[in-house]
């Protein structure tokens, strides 16, 4: 995956920078497929280690990615996980995932509907009525969340709204979605 938008501002920590770049690239890749997408899960591995373990991977990577990996030991490659196990919700899916030690981190993308706090107070208790309320509320915002976490603890989030669906309008930061960060982090325990 490649992305020409500017890298988000991060700390001087190389792992944090690499994670921020990986999450930005994942979000951009998922955004290219449009909205109303299912949950997507990615393993994050250090590109140098992946190339050492699987030399044939070099043929699948662009020269720019290979050069970046050679220059930066923390450069990460994302590997989308196909055929995710069935789960009734995101929390159950993440609770059932574990990663081998060769995986340095994990990332997930998910779409959600958010309402202003005042509107959330009026969500009906009935599940069907609550869904109808969310889908028809005039102040609803559709958002795509991309969250990545490394085994060492670093986290990075990207948030895109459907109303401002542009690469330069994506919010970035280490703790924008703390609950989802914690859930993805638990898959690495």
From TrEMBL:
The lineage of its organism: Bacteria, Bacillati, Actinomycetota, Actinomycetes, Micrococcales. It comes from Cellulomonas alba. InterPro entries: PPA1309-like. This is PPA1309 family protein.
């Amino acid at each position: 995956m490649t992305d020409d938008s500017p890298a988000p501002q991060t700390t001087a920590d190389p792992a944090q920078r690499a994670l921020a770049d990986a999450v930005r690239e994942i979000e951009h890749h998922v955004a290219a497929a449009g909205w109303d997408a299912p949950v997507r899960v990615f393993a994050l591995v250090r590109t140098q280690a992946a190339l050492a373990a699987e030399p044939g991977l070099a043929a699948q990577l662009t020269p720019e990615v290979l050069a970046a990996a050679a220059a930066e030991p923390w450069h990460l490659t994302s590997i989308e996980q196909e055929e995710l196990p069935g789960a009734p919700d995101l929390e159950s899916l993440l609770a059932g995932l574990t990663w081998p030690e060769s995986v340095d981190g994990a990332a997930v993308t998910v779409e959600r509907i958010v309402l202003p706090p005042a509107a959330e107070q009026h969500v009906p208790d009935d599940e069907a009525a609550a869904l109808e309320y969310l889908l028809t509320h005039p102040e609803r915002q559709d958002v795509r969340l991309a969250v990545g976490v490394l085994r060492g603890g670093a986290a990075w989030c990207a948030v895109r709204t459907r109303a401002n669906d542009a690469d330069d309008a994506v919010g970035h930061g280490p703790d924008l979605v703390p609950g989802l960060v914690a859930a993805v982090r638990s898959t690495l325990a």
